[in-house]
Amino acid sequence: MSLPDFSSAPVRIDAAIDKALAEKRVVGTVVLAAHNGEIIHHRAAGYSDREARTPMREDAIFLLASVTKPFVTAAAMRLVEEGRLDLDAPVTRWLPDFCPTLTNGTKPEITIRHLLLHTSGLGYGLLEPADGPYHKLNVSDGLDQPGLSLEENLSRLAAAPLNFAPGTSWLYSLGMDVLGGVLEKVEGRSLPDIVREKVTAPLGLEDTDFSIRDVSRLAKAYADGDPEPVAMTDGIAVAQRGLEGLAAIFAPSRIFDARSYPSGGAGMAGTAKDILRFLEAIRAGGAPILTAGTVESMVKDQVGAQAETQGPGWGFGYGWAVLDDPLPTGTPQAAGTLQWGGAYGHYWFMDRQNGISVVALTNTAFEGIGGAFPIDVRNAVYG
Asked: Which residues are catalytic?
């Protein structure tokens, strides 16, 4: 197999961006791509605020949703390195009241490892129909309900039945929000402080946090619409691509309410540049935030490709999906590629074999994560 021609990737990526904007599938985007640590493409396009006609800028700050997860995972793994956290310890060591039950009434042990790998039996409201238990209990996915405390949300979550016995299956879940509560108990301080000290500050990431310092750079959030995306308002329910009858509920103002719990799975905001710097640190071995040994464990599939975490051929490591077998996916990415995204409209991947890291942030859900745009960008990179 011949190596991809990354030299002409910028032209192809620009064409993919222009197509999405022309077809009004995306309002605005920032796309960055690096090859062996060197930036080969960088572009901001479209609008940060369509109604105000504010152009998108490369240092725009986006609500990250699940792009939060790798940062919180890295903080947790740093605590493991320091001997402060044990992956096989039960969650109840730090959160004694968090004891969700199976449908038969038993209360199985959930470990830190289960939370990190989404094998805990917990789920997400956005993956349930409107009459599901999470909706009935008003469990927040960390994207909505400004002002809600972590204690209250964990109480609601613990009242919902587990989907399966911990360790027996895989389901994307609120486990990272539970983990955030554990980390706060371990350290005796807030999750934002922990992530800042362990991850973002050592990497010099000034704009990626659980709060926003420069609101003027915040990209306005939009949702899929016809003939064009619609501006999000608090409480908006957005139908998910390819998931019949399922929707996610958003509240863009959540990050501005200091009472909102810092969601370990969805609570951060940040820039494409910061995310790329984080990914490149992982690609290069983890310094200065993690050791190479820890990173090697994180980039291995820990659950098996049968979980199909991003479709056939995809397993899951610590913080991201891991591509085990490219053949059933139709992707040009090499085996071992890491990939994930965020519900506000984001996508990133790191192809370690080919030395490629790509970050594509948009302000449009769900096109930016579940539509044609991320696939078009991915394919454009490889040509």
From this structure: 66
